[in-house]
């Protein structure tokens, strides 16, 4: 087990549940429906990748380099993707204009795709032996 990866997955899961509850209860009356839907998309992707990291942290067939780089791509991608969505979707109630960081969301998506792609590539190489 890789303790760092499992801790990161658990931390993303914990904050994902908290942010999901915030969105479902406190923000429901505060945000426009489209902004609330975006916020929940951020939560959903954060939770998917929390589970991904938990799996990655206990998985034993991948090499350490693959595990490390996949972790970096997934964690960085989740932070960029989900947290930029949180900021962008709540700008209406915070009064802060976060539109200048809109480019961070697709960068986060690209990092997530890279992490998943690396895992897929390495698994194909493992099963091809």
TrEMBL record:
The keyword Oxidoreductase does not apply. The chain crosses the membrane at residues 42-58, 70-89, 101-124. InterPro entries: DUF423. The keyword Transmembrane helix applies. It is a multi-pass membrane protein. It is found in: Membrane. Keywords: Membrane, Transmembrane, Transmembrane helix. One of its GO terms (cellular component) is plasma membrane. Belongs to the UPF0382 family. This is DUF423 domain-containing protein.
């Amino acid at each position: 087990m890789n303790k760092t990866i499992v801790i990161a997955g658990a931390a993303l899961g914990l904050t994902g549940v908290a942010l999901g509850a915030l969105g479902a209860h406190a923000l429901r009356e505060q945000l426009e429906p489209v902004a609330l839907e975006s916020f929940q998309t951020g939560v959903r992707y954060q939770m998917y990748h929390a589970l991904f990291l938990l799996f990655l942290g206990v998985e034993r067939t991948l090499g350490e380099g693959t595990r490390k780089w996949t972790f970096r791509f997934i964690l960085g991608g989740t932070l960029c993707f989900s947290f930029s969505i949180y900021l962008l979707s709540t700008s209406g109630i915070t009064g802060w204009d976060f539109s200048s960081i809109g480019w961070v969301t697709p960068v986060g998506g690209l990092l997530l795709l890279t992490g998943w792609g690396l895992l897929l590539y390495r698994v194909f190489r493992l099963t091809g032996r």
